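OP here, attaching both records as promised.
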Amino acid sequence: MQYNIRGQKTRMYDADTGQTRYVYNALGELVSQTDAKAQTVSMQYDRLGRMVQRQEPEGMSTWTYDTQPKGIGKLAAVTGPNGYQESYRYNGLGRMAETHTQLNGQNYFVSTVYDQYGRVESLTYPTSLAVQNTYNEHGYLADVQRASDNQPLWQAKRLNARGQLEQVALGNGLVTDKVYTPTTGRIQSIQTGGGVIQNLAYTFDKLGNLTQRTNRHLVETFQYDGLNRLTQTAVQGVYSTTITYDALGNITSKSDVGSYTYGENGAGPHAVTSISGLKSSQYTYDANGNRITSSATGQQIEYTSFNKPRRISQGNTSLEFEYGPNYSRYQQKVTKAGQTTTTTYISGGLMEREVDQNWVKDTHYLFAGGESIAVHIQKNHGIAEETRYLHKDHLGSIDAITEKDGQPVESFSFDAWGQRRHPDSWNTLTDAQLGELILNNTGLTTSRGFTGHEHLDEVQLIHTNGRLYDPVIGRFLSADPFVQAPTFSQSLNRYSYVMNNPLSLVDPSGFFLKKLWNGIKKAVKAVGKFVKKYWKPIVATVAGIALGVVTGGLASGFVGAVLSGTGFGFGSAFAGTMLGGGSIGDALKAGLKGAVIGGVTAGLTTYGVNSLFAEGAAGVQLFGKAARVAKIVANGVVTGLSSLALGGKFERGFIWSVATGTLNYLYGRLVGESPRLLGIGKTADPTKGKWDLPTNGSLNFGIQGGDGKVGWLHEGQPVTDSIARYVPFMNATSGMHDFMQVAMTFRSDLLRNFLNVPYMLPAALITVGAYMGEKQYIPPPSK
């Protein structure tokens, strides 16, 4: 990568996707991007930094803001290539009330009504079909009904403590029961209709890998390697497959497909270029790393400038796609033997309209709790209509579909990688059976199947909306633009499907874990906003801690505690007054007052309240098991009174003390010791393994042992030990972080590596809060 003097990335070379160049304006906004195919996209922004125009080879997209009533600061309208238009209307509280989409001369309206708590009360589709939501007294969704006749569609019957639905009743009278493991929350079984419609059972290992699944008389088992990659699948009495990998996460062989070769003819190191064996084929790629040809099927694929498929052709079949300004697919045309069927996707797939020479079919996807539960189908604009219900497995794949009387009309099954197979025998479909399925595809209730994604059965691919996926070879056709866990080697393989663990993980968008990663980024941004808003009291607190440490170190015991409290009181009050606009004289007065009250508070809490509730003291005998709570509350009262004396509010000091005291108690119970500012006097524990909890009194900064390696970043090395001893809070934070890594990742290497960085911020916040609870500092004054 190359960066300019402002630290902005100007060039990136990726072995899979080639070279990309970036250009910025004076405000640091990205205004131009050129990829390895010399395709350039240009962006323009308004004064608030919002994108208002984007020009790319497909055409121009525009965004308009602030022009709708109650829509100040909100998106008002969007336009895109090929006449795409979308506008938005907001209600009195600024919430999205209506979306109006114009496609190919047709108008589609989707409207939303909210209840007094801001929850969705009703949703109306473009065909005027409407559904209503009802919530229970705890705020959970209780049932979904069709608004026109109050016909029940879905009802929550039982919820466990984790918020997982254990029993659901559907509008056709069928009841689905789910059983979860209490300690992990993993699914154990799914039964619908007393086991007649669905009778699925699952077994997971301690790392969360699925090791067995059953459906009535059929049993399938799975094995994994040390990186949690699927290595073997076996259906008892039917078939068995084995999968091998290289160090890069590439599949090197799949016994039901053949041996894989990568990186030929200029392709990237993760792009499969040929397969030899049962399903031999050769593949070629464009400069952006997109697969464009397959010799086995004669398949050819053209891509947009944003690397999504524009056209797929294979034999006498072709598929063409159109995308909106947000790169979401809104139209698909399938032409087979001269006959064309056009599917329009409205509001991100909320409704699909299929049109051919003979009929119009509107498929409405009905949702409950963010999951599609049924489809309501109208043909020829409502002349014929019916509701069918979707029954899914643990991955969200459609397992069965039932009609209004509860009778099954369609059953499905998919192998570990998403290939369709016979639902009754789990045999892989023959070419003739697959051809028959393709021929009759227009009769299926929905083309969605594996993990809820859409199957393009005509070309044996799956469209995940983000990318195309080939379930036969278990690889994506394009490189993932997101690298979610750069510290985990398997995440660097941009073509792998969910890190080669397809039975325990899902890819909802085709961009693996994009939503979770975006959630982490939003959390970091939220922390940044918090710091920006409250930086003054934060600085005052840091100043108080620094002075408290210095003065507290002048003596030990009672005197040390008083001096520490005195130093914190002076430092936080002085800094808080200065940052609030006060003069030096005002700050000195506030500091002296804070010093006196801080010292008294520290003395009272450390050798008053804490002594009363020490182990074996009268306070413990008086309060018994509630002594811990009583101690925290008593310290809260003292700190609240001290806050009041400083000119603040009693409740602020009380809440501050109770919160930090609780964190201190939790830290001690979880890590095994009280948090210390520095790790001076401690040494690393050489016996500590990868899955061992932090050791009391030891240094914990660095990579935990147990992986057979010792590098300069491992625990117990000179660099890591120095950081742990002399950088404030580093060792104490590492202890909490180690606890979270060991106890809150289900002993999964995959989850542990992915959560390594996200766990750092909460570990640091808990540690600092626990330290302040240990010292019983008074909160800095606020203005």
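Record two, same layout:
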Amino acid sequence: MGRVTFGLTTRGGTGAVFTGFLASTGDWVFTTAGSGAGSAVDAWVRTTGPQPSKPIQRSDNNSVRLQACAIPYSPIVHLLCTVRLNYALVWAATLHAHDKGFRPMVVLGGLTINLPNRYEIAMKHTLYILLISGLLACGTTTTAPDDTTGSDQTVSEDSSSPPDDQGSGLPPTANWCETIQSGPAGTRPFPQDFARAHVGQRLFAPKADWLTADEKLISLLHDNELDPDLLPLYAAQFDHICATSTITAPVPETLLTMLDTFAVITPGTGTVDIPDEALVLVVDLRDLHPEADVAKAAAHAMSSHYLFGQRRVRRFLGFPSQDDGWTHYESSLEDVPLSLPPAGNREMPILFLVGPQLTPEAATIAGGLRLSQRAALLGHDIHTKVAESTFLGIGDQGLVWRNSELWLDAGVWPDRIPADIPTSEPEAVLGTLNPDAIESLLESDLKPVNPSEITRPSIESYTRYPGDPAPNLDHATMQAALLVAYGTLDWFYPYFDIVGRDIDGALLDGLDEVSALPIGDRKGMKHVMGRFMHHIHDGHGFYTDHSEDMDDWPDGYLIVQIQNVNGEAVIRSSAHDGLNAGDTILAVDGVTIEDWYAEAMTRYSASSDGYRFVLASDELKEVYGTKTLSVRDPDGVERDVTAQPSWDIYDVAWGGSLRQSGWLTDLDAPGIYYVNMSGEVTPDITDLMEGFSDVVDASGFVLDMRDYPYLDIYGFAGHFNPDPFTAPIFGHPTWTGPETFAIEDEIWDFPPANQVYTGPIVLLVSNKSVSAAECFGQMIMGLSNVTVIGQTSACTNGTITNVLLPGNLGITFTGMRLRNLDGTEFHGIGIIPDETVVPDATDFAAGTDPELMRALEVLLSP
């Protein structure tokens, strides 16, 4: 450290140099102003001996006085060199000299110079700022002009100079993870929040390689427990993820303090009123609470809506089915406008106080407003990766992952946005600034972004089916499969508010269960996944094993239709030797039927108990080797039947009846037309629709929808709707980036057909009327001429979507929030009959169709 000696040279026109000192860091600022054609100012400084540091002072006679002091790194400055502006510190008193009536003056060495008034306007309108915090001259050595002692000295760059931080003068922060402010703590057990984070980053991260993301997770789980210690190891696997701490303190109130004409806001919660005398809005982003309302704070300087860029993100209109077939759900890249609504009654310049860490929201707003020249930055640089990220708390830790790409005026943001006034102690600088200084900073353009200098990867389009996961099934893969299944449902399953969150506990139970399974136990894993899926209460919630190693296939089936009759499993129809229509099943392979169903139904997901019984009954029909049933006939006689497997599954209807469509002459109702809409009976309705004139004069219609249809349900529904109608409302759970969620409705409109039947109609439904069957029912059940007869439907409608899981496993679920035509809920409610028919075993034994017979009674009654 040496004594400071100054020199000043003016050439061509008039000029002056002004010096300022930042006491908190020991840094000098040189400000030059010149006027007149060809004016130029040279200033230089040399150290020759120790000097104490002293702050900026104001003298008693209202002049501004800067006292000589020591500088930290012995630099030489020549103002005519091309330099980077390290610190843009403005001497506020000098800027305000004209307005305040001060007489500017400087101290050069020990000489005080009072500057003529003719320089005041020049100072206010032509200002260039340099801070000496290292050798900034053009070259590593510079020879200064003679000092006041007449000596010459060459000064070399000192090795103790601070490292260059891309022009900030502060120590560099190369790792963007170090610049992230902690977020709110997690609220759920570690596996639940971690599963959401893993699936979230594999959905929204820049690279769309979710298969590799799962492989990295599996690799970690091989050697580590699924507990909080895993989090930093997990983050280290990805260059777009950071592990951070969290904050549990409540959000403080927004604070407002006035510093002369500067309104200083510390964002929090609540509102503040900006005084009329405020000329600059200062938003303090240091040590910010993650839930503080930065946008509202900054908007106090806005009197109109302000657009400051776009955020490119992935948008998921539902979860795209992970297979190579058709999907109702789509993914795309979308540019989301970044804007602030006005919260003020006038426009003010904004100055952000930027600390070493920022929240993603704060980085976005401060960075965007700086790049659009609406705000200036005092403090630290902003890493754009932080602004392009999202935070998720996981216990007392959190994960931050980059999920977007920020743009302004068709150009991508730079990797780093430099502070206009870099400093680690902004309070000291803030007291030296005035409104004109802030306006000058806003007028300065940042260096244009060279695309070749951008190191951040762009956001790729999502690939829904890049191939199949590896089929290995060890304990780590089992854990990963459960985590991915839970995380995907947590993001996209649309009915948790209706069915509850039993799945949360099911994840923890499933993780415990797989730890006890043998490696490679695919059947055991199937049962674990079945119990897990049970808890989403969705009739489309199935589990699949896509691996060729899965060899747990039945040898055949029981060729029977089983129906729930007052809680008993009764055979409605049979083509299987030894089993008869009307038989009630009492036991299966020695297990009572009550216990058998109680266990089996825990492994099936359904929106109603009736449909869960249907799904379990489908399993009961599977035969491995042989199956022994204990049954009771309608007369009460019990017997045991050892059934052999059969593949004649189409000899019995899955639901309802195999009766062919046509006039019901055989039931003494020749004027009633019957349509069996089962896909097995009527896979195509084209002939009937084209020849509808042959049936349009029927005295009544029976539409049997007790099985699953393959026909065109929308076109066929047009023959019974006299007015334009719609399908049920398809509500897509939509994520635009990981922070914006909405249910976006899709409504399909249809005109009535050329010929419409308006006479009496009976719609037959059962517990097996599911999905498309219910969709058809929803389109006609509100008509005044329709009577619904049978049992409550499956309560499950909406397009299925597929999820691929580690181990080449898979699940499906209803991917949309489907509602009735009038907007009321359908899931778990279904189509409720106007008349419920409870069949009897004797009806089945006699070959009677009790629901159809009741339909005829309704249609034939006067």
